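Assess this one:
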Amino acid sequence: LCYKSGCGKSLGRIGTYWLPELRRTNLTGDKPVLLVGCQEDVVVSSSAVASSQGQDPTSPLSSPGRGDAVRGNENRLVEASKAEDAMLDAEALESKLALLIDEWKEIEVCLQCSAKRLSNCAEVFVQAQKAVMHPTGPLYDAQTGQLKPRCVRALKRIFQICDEDADGFLSDRELNHFQATCFGTPLQVRTRRTGAERATPALKRSSSCTLFTSVAGGRTDLLSLKTKTHPNCPKNHKPEELEGVRKIISTKVPEGIAPSGVTLKGFVYLHALFVARGRMDTTWTVLRKFGYDNALELRPDLCQGALSQLGHFHPDQCVEITDSGRDFLRLKFRQHDKDADGVLSDAELEELFSTAPGFPGPEWHRDAYHGMVDTSGRGGGKSKGGEPCLTLDGFLSLWDLMALRSPATALVHALYLGRSKEDLPTFLRISRRRKQEVRRARRPQGIASGSGHHKPPLTRRVLSCVVFATPDQLRRNETVLTEPDQQTRVFRVPAGQGDAASSEKTLVVRQVEAGSGDDGAGGYTDAALLQSVDLCIICFGQKRDDLADQVALMKRVERKGTGLLPFALACVSASADEGSSGMADAITQQLSMAKPLDPSSEAASETLARLCGLCSDPHASIPRTEERLAKEHRDLVVRRCTTGLVVGAGVISALLIAHRLYASASNVEGAEDESRE
């Protein structure tokens, strides 16, 4: 954005018209703006002429003498116009530019140039390139004079990745490895020089920009940092760049240096010093080497390989965390549980995600996860300050829910927590198709009555359950393991709990209001959506009419499914009469379903075990309605007809082949007889 150098009117229009117009049309957005003052030579010439005539260059030009009243008015208008176009001195120009920079954060650089004298013309293009390639806005806050919080979070993640022994310090070896990783040039070189190199008066160094030489300001070689090593010394002498870096950090931030190495505060201060000295390219080189874009977020392509490995999966498959991923999350939990009490407080959870731009989602705030997953206030565990805290089971449950809903979010936040790009493909996996596993498993006799033992067909670790409840039931808080104001609840079922829980399971329970949505089932009559569900629970209460309505809803939902979705009835009212319970028992026996649940009288662990068993073993409660039996009969007839056609075609083909073989053999024998005769 250009203006006339020294012209108050031209510079004033920058703040009153051009910058507001650019912001209104959204042309700038997050793009930097360069404020360039043109015709710098005119300012110099005007100042020189005014000085030679003994006139203040900042005062307006003298106007002619007054005549009549009309001429006096014209002169006053001319003087006012000239006053607006008057040349500003250096102090006034600097103050106006400072006000513009404070008011308009889009301004990245202010400079002046002269095309006539070729002054700073090349610098304009250099600064334009730097403003785009190495912007200051995402890194530095001009008002506070500090690095922005998102930049500090990114640098903290880089520090933790480079801190290989996780002791909170960057040792000399770790700093050397960091330097070589980012800039390709180690700090300490111990190779012996040849005879030709000894004869060279100056020591040859790498011309690439390095991290620690940027502190010296301007030089891009290793010798720019003041050390005790003479340029003509033998090359096997150890350079002392690290000592210079420690001295620079300890001067301003004493706690940034420790005997074990550089601390996080020292590492952040080092980059703040780069930005303050205009060496944003150094900090941006480090950030981009570790995968950050201009918004200081990890680039999407870092997760592309892991997502491509997952590929496109069917709706009846789910994404779950692998054993390696769970071990990684358990390690992060223990590292940030500073007092080793088995729970994470708000401060500890914030510290865990301090290397990310923020929490992965709203469910990670205490008000949300307290009613969603296991916390210290639910299981009788410890709490901090009387407030519920996140337990390890709750922590893993939130990660399971995040992987189920958005695998890309789970992968990118695993990177933020320190998971390497090479190990990222082993963090998630795709479960087997539910349809294939259910059909492969046989239904043993007596499973509906509770007898019969067999291996559960579902091997997935994350199970999904939908609870249908009426508005009255939700208002009276008569639901299954959920609350009226909580739409989703996640439970951890330990290994061995329940008949079907042969391994640790995560049960995701979603609450749906019966009668909501256009279909009256909250949208759960969609076939693709039903394929992602492992169990549907129909709640009934005191009245028989309510039970009839809920059974009709169950049949309507089941009709839209694939025939492999189990259902369960649940008595959610403690005052239900015997007629309603007996009617529910009769319905389950008629439809070959499992016995109704009774969460009002059962313990929560017992209800969880039954739900997990029904999800893992859907054959135990798939309703055999009239429509389903008719469909199965049609499918059986079609299969038998198809089998008969295939077998018949095979028999006919075999007979034709045998006939041809017999005819050819007869022809051969007849030809042999004729030849003998």
User: Anything to note?
Assistant: The first strand starts at residue 2 and ends at 4.
